[in-house]
Amino acid sequence: MPDAQHLQALLVQCAERRESALAELYRLASPHLFALARRMLRDQAAAEDVLQECFVSIWRQAGQYQAEQSQPMTWMTRIVRNRCIDRLRRPDVVVPDPDDTLTLAMADDGPGPLARLEASQDGRRLADCMGQLEGPQRVAIAMAFFDDLAHPDIAARLETPLGTIKSWIRRGLQRLKRCLE
Amino acid sequence: MNYRHPELQDRLAAEYVLGGLRAGARQRFINLMRDDAGLRRAVMEWEDRLLPLAMALPPETPPAHVWQAIAARIAAAPKSAPNSAATRAPSAPRGLSWWRALSAGLATAVVVLAFLMLKPAPAPTEVRTVAVLSGEKAPGAMVVNTLPDNRLAVQPMQDLVALADGRALELWSITPGQAPRSLGLVQPGQTTVLAPSLLPQQGDTVAITLEPAGGAPGGIPTGPVVLSGKVI
User: Fold this and answer.
1) Domain A100-180 indexed as CATH 1.10.10.10
2) CB contact under 8 A, B57 and A6
């Protein structure tokens, strides 16, 4: 997991138009951001396009990054995630069904996505707090986050009433917030 | 609905960040965010909480052509503080005297460099990118990093086997006004770690030439420059 201070310094250098800083930022951050784009879009070529667009945006917007407001990885993740969401919700885009292996594995306490999250610098506390949720709450949150599934789609995949899904997500998020305070 | 109610704002911000606001609702929320600092703050707090979830995915290295496309696009963009010596990239002159051409092109930078050299660079404590090398059809094809132990890690950002065309890739450092100094041979398909006696300095140009197997005879480059870049 890239060190936040180092990433911050690289963003400052990008704002000063040092191409080598973007190269290093790319080397450190792109494997995580590409994994997210691939997961959300379920399409290799689309994920490559989005990653390219996002790094050009990061280069152009680096001067607007404010270290006191967000972690550098969070800032870059937001750029990638929002672009993926915009693309997924275009009316002409047909997205294949997500592979549920990863999201269902969020219910497990053993090695898996939660353990990976725990190993990352930014994700350790979140992993602890996710671990305190009930398995189904975690899975519903993961399906919304990684697969951009709407609540009725999550309900259908988990064969659970829509009202239950909504309350899992709402209560899960509130518990996460209290835990992370 | 009263959007200024803090609890409602917080709940909507959470749903927005998680992706639960669909179509019209998402767009309405984005419009509201523009004019409402409280809402923007609530969103940022939720982003800080939830976006690290992305780290639960196994990292995947993107294919090399993605970086090439990015490098080409940012290189084409206008620069805020252009440095005439730095932006005049050497365009692969051929033959034995290519480095003389490079040196001449860089001579204007000598005065500035002499000043910069008065301040010795601090010893690197972390991996630091010192140069990005590009070729005519290969923008950003190679990155040269210094390691904390003062060795160089030379990382191809794409497969350079085709570029090498069966010959050895030799890395050179060129200080303006001096003969090129070989830093060693690099692998076309993987990162090579080199331990040169003298690291490339700010203002130097680093370049890759194609050489016979085993490297340039007598330590003098013989082949064409296929990649080059300035040390920052």
Assistant:
1) yes
2) no
pLDDT of residue B2: 63
- For chain A, give every domain's residue range: 4-88, 100-180
- Contact residues for B178 (Cβ-Cβ < 8 A; gap 6+): B103
Residues 117-146 of B with CB under 8 A from A: 126-132, 140, 143, 145
What is the token pair recorded at B43? 């969103």
- Run of H or E including B7: helix B6-18
ipTM score: 0.94
Contact B212, B172 (CB under 8 A): no
In CATH terms, A4-88 corresponds, of 1.20.120.790, 1.10.1740.10, 3.40.30.10, 1.20.120.530, to 1.10.1740.10
Which among A23, A35, A113 is the nearest to B143, CB-wise? Answer: A23
In the prediction, which pLDDT does B140 show?
A: 83
User: Which residues does residue B156 pair with via DSSP β-bridges, in sequence order?
Assistant: B142
- 3-class DSSP state of B147: coil
- Same fold flag, A4-88 and A100-180: no
Taking the whole predicted model, whether its pTM rises above 0.90 is answered as no
Q: Which residues of B touch A27 (CB under 8 A)?
A: 129, 143, 155
CB < 8 Å to A19, chain B: 71, 74-75, 132, 140
State pLDDT tens for residues B5-60.
Answer: 888 999 999 999 999 999 889 999 999 999 999 999 999 999 999 999 999 999 99
Q: Is B184 left (phi over 0), alpha (psi -120 to 50) or beta?
A: left
